[in-house]
Amino acid sequence: MTADSRSRLRAVCLAGPSDSGKTTLVEELVPRLAEDDRVATVKSIHHDIEIDTPGADTHRHRTAGAETVVGITPELTFDVTARGKRDPPDEPGVDPFDLGERESDNDLDPSELRELRALASTLERLERRGYDVVLVEGFSEAPLPTILVGEREPAEVGGPVVGRRDDGLESLVETIRSVDPLALDRSAD
User: Fold this and answer.
1) DSSP state, 136?
2) d(Cα 98, Cα 94) in Å, to the nearest integer?
């Protein structure tokens, strides 16, 4: 794999119980990281919500059967794809979490496996779009470098613990910038 074909995307998970301060920490980290990097965030949501107003044209496009709808406003561009955790898209040849191996070992239940496939697909898409850093809130079972927030023990997360909320903002920024990029080989493109 050449240096040009290797991903530069660094992804870090923020894991902790509800109301432990994960979102507040994301709000503090993003502006600091965005000084030097393109930053995206991913949030695990455990219940369905409607983010596209029923009756709006984009909602009508989606309910008519479009798999992805892109809306472009004067200030924002957004896309809604009808594949979430229940039916994540497959990214051929991309398996940054070794999900095939973990599935055969019965390491994960089917719902956890679907959630990780959805996250892997999202990280692949963000990598293709040129992001440098992704902060993942939730998805505590993901095998990503993890910052613990609140009362969460290292044995309760899927990735190596690289920091704790109490480490301080500047230390956490440096930790995130120093994690290894995801193993996404783009040479096949």
Assistant:
1) E
2) 9
